[in-house]
Write a structure and sequence with these properties.
The protein has 240 residues and is mostly helical. It folds into three domains: 1-55; 64-169, Potassium Channel Kv1.1, Chain A; 170-240, Serine Threonine Protein Phosphatase 5, Tetratricopeptide repeat. It is built from eleven helices and three strands. The protein has a three-stranded mixed beta sheet with strand order 2-1-3. The radius of gyration is 24 Å and the shape is elongated.
């Protein structure tokens, strides 16, 4: 039977194109789908930034008043700890977790204070800055800290913001550690990006600086990596 795309004769097997053309078309479809998803993500990000900027100008928004009405408290044993003021409306609009706290009869709502544990003063301040501006000054450490806060308090755009930082700075040396990190905090885009890099360096897997730590603490992730590589090899062999 002739392939509808390249007109070469092939064994049909319920297909209208040969394997090579099918794979090319499938890859093109994946590329287009990825581009569409990226455009959707960028559009959502722009809409989010527009909405957050309208919330983050309390001096121009009379409904918020001129002063903050809530305090975020750091652990007492933090020598740099201090109360960080914030508008209740910011937290309610950007975090389902804070919304549940502040729109119920929980202690946080009654006291006007929320205790934030397991975070440094620097990280909490960066978190608040992001909530008001949709921007943050990131390095690997800060991005990891903020992403963890984004996951804990379900600030999804903060998670996506930090994922984007990690993906844009991805390399082989970081890929294994970021794959484990992505699994811990349910970061699908970062997980996919790091796994792609790992697949391209499987011959160096055991030489990665994070390999021994992952082997000791989460060997099932290494099993998953090897299974993914094996399935990829089987698919490639089948296509040829």
């Amino acid at each position: 039977m002739e392939c509808l795309s390249c007109e070469k004769v092939y064994d049909p097997k319920n297909m209208v194109t040969c394997n090579n053309c099918y794979e090319k078309e499938n890859e093109e479809l994946k590329r287009i789908t990825k581009e569409i998803d990226e455009l959707k993500r960028k559009n959502e990000e722009l809409e989010f930034k527009t909405s957050i900027l309208s919330l983050s100008t309390p001096f121009q928004n009379r409904s918020l008043g001129l002063s903050t009405d809530l305090l975020l408290l750091l652990p007492a044993d933090d020598s740099s700890a201090s109360a960080i003021p914030i508008h209740r409306n910011i937290l309610v609009n950007l975090s389902p977790v804070f919304k549940a706290m502040l729109e119920s009869d929980m202690l946080e709502s009654r006291s006007g204070t929320i205790k934030i544990a397991d975070v440094s003063c620097e990280t909490l301040r960066a978190f608040v800055v992001y909530l008001y501006t949709a921007e943050a000054c990131l390095d690997d450490q800060m991005a990891g800290n903020l992403l963890a806060l984004g996951e804990k308090y379900q600030v999804k755009y903060l998670k996506a913001y930090c994922e984007k930082f990690f993906i844009s700075n991805m390399n082989w040396d970081k890929s294994l550690q970021l794959f484990a990190f992505a699994n811990k905090y349910n970061c699908q885009q970062l997980r996919s990006a790091s796994l792609d890099v790992i697949m391209n360096h499987m011959d160096q897997l055991t030489k990665n600086d994070y390999y021994d730590e992952l082997l000791e603490n989460n060997p099932l992730l290494l099993v998953e990596i090897c299974q993914t590589h094996y399935r990829k090899q089987i698919t490639t062999a089948h296509n040829y």
